[in-house]
TrEMBL record:
UniProt organism field: Flagellimonas halotolerans
The protein's name: NAD-dependent epimerase
Top-rank lineage group of the source organism: Bacteria
Pfam families assigned to the protein according to its UniProt record, in alphabetical order: Epimerase (PF01370)
Residues of the NAD-dependent epimerase/dehydratase domain: 3-268
InterPro entries from the UniProt entry: Epimerase_deHydtase, NAD(P)-bd_dom_sf
Record PANTHER family: EPIMERASE-RELATED
Lineage, broadest ranks: Bacteria, Pseudomonadati, Bacteroidota, Flavobacteriia, Flavobacteriales
Keywords: NAD
Length: 345
């Protein structure tokens, strides 16, 4: 199949592109390479796909071909209402996988406009292109943050998500509603994936594992919010990608909601791990005891997440299998190589 992957220079998008190419698909990656975090990490991910930095830096219609003859990269904003339709018309995609978004819960308190531009306006443009250019299936990233302060554990897709506590969460809930509307009106299938705390090699430097590892290696204290009373459904990136790929490959696995080909799935490790246990796995891997700075809860954050993935298991035989310790070890191995830091094994 010919597949569009937006957010191709991002953490999950990079891994999805890599796996799709390994499986023989033709992939067009799209990203605007914004500076929410160090753009060099994004360029380095693209370099792994064979796209040199000088080509990745250019906006517009330039198509950069990577070391994979079946991969192309285009730098573009999803908000671009003229160029995005041109891309869809030119490439004739079978599937669209929208992983591009302005990420981060806490950043949404500082820069709310970017979430509306990318996550809502950009997503509307994707939906319009899917409608107008006969896309067979739209797979898109939602987030576990839509559950807000939900206290029912584990989180189920049947739970109410009407009370998001950050603009990021609200934008992801909006995506789900918009996708439902387009599936209902225009009949093309949409699948939303609520990701749960993804970690692993090539991960974002603003996320906990990267921040913790960086601080511990440098002998600096790590910030532990809510005095350590946090739990997360930490999910290794390869397990996430396996679920995404199965859904991309088999769009026939739909349960109709009335007359609408619309589905939402949780995609997580299906367990909840205490933050302090996660830190302990990292300490064990690094052979360094962390200096912990205990802090109160941050606005927009939640105490506990836990994914019920039973629907995904039933429909796609999906079962994550990477332990926390193994996943942390793989991240640390990548981190040490990427940053050229020697870490005792």
């Amino acid at each position: 199949m010919k597949i569009l992957v937006t957010g191709a220079a991002g953490f999950i998008g990079f891994h999805v592109c890599t796996k799709l190419l390994e499986k023989g698909h033709e992939v067009v990656g799209l990203d605007n390479i914004n500076d929410y975090y160090d753009v060099n990490l994004k360029y380095d991910r693209l370099l792994e796909l064979g796209i040199p930095m000088n080509e990745a830096k250019v906006f517009g219609n330039l198509v950069a071909s990577g070391k994979h003859t079946s991969f192309q990269f285009i730098r573009m904003n999803l908000e671009d209402r003229s160029e995005l339709p041109n891309l869809f018309k030119q490439e004739n995609f079978d599937i669209a996988c929208n992983l591009a978004a302005q990420a981060g819960v806490r950043y949404s308190l500082e820069n709310p406009e970017s979430y509306v531009d990318s996550n809502i306006v950009g997503f509307l443009n994707i939906l319009e292109c899917c409608r107008n250019f006969a896309i067979k299936h739209l797979v898109y990233a939602s987030s576990s943050s839509v559950y807000g302060t939900n206290t029912k554990i584990p989180f189920s897709t049947t739970d109410s998500v009407d009370h998001p506590i950050s603009l990021y969460a609200a934008s992801k809930k909006s995506n789900e509603l918009m996708a439902y509307t387009y599936s209902h009106l225009y009949g093309f299938p949409t699948t939303g994936l609520r990701f749960f705390t993804v970690y692993g090699p090539w991960g974002r430097p603003d996320m906990a594992l990267y921040l913790f590892t960086d601080a511990i290696v440098k002998g600096e204290p790590i910030k532990v919010f809510n005095n350590g009373e946090m739990q997360r459904d930490f999910t290794y990136v390869d397990d996430i990608v396996e679920g995404v790929i199965r859904i991309i490959k088999q769009p026939v696995k739909y349960r109709k909601t009335g007359d609408t080909k619309y589905k939402i799935y949780n995609i997580g490790n299906s367990t909840s791990v205490k933050l302090l246990d996660f830190i302990e796995a990292l300490e064990s891997t690094l052979h360094i005891k962390a200096k912990k700075q205990f802090l109160p809860m941050q606005p927009g954050d939640v105490k506990k997440t836990w994914a019920d993935v039973s629907d995904l298991k039933t429909d796609y035989d999906y079962q994550p299998n990477t332990s926390i310790l193994e996943g942390v070890k793989r991240f640390v191995s990548w981190y040490s190589n990427y940053n050229d830091i020697e870490i005792k094994s």
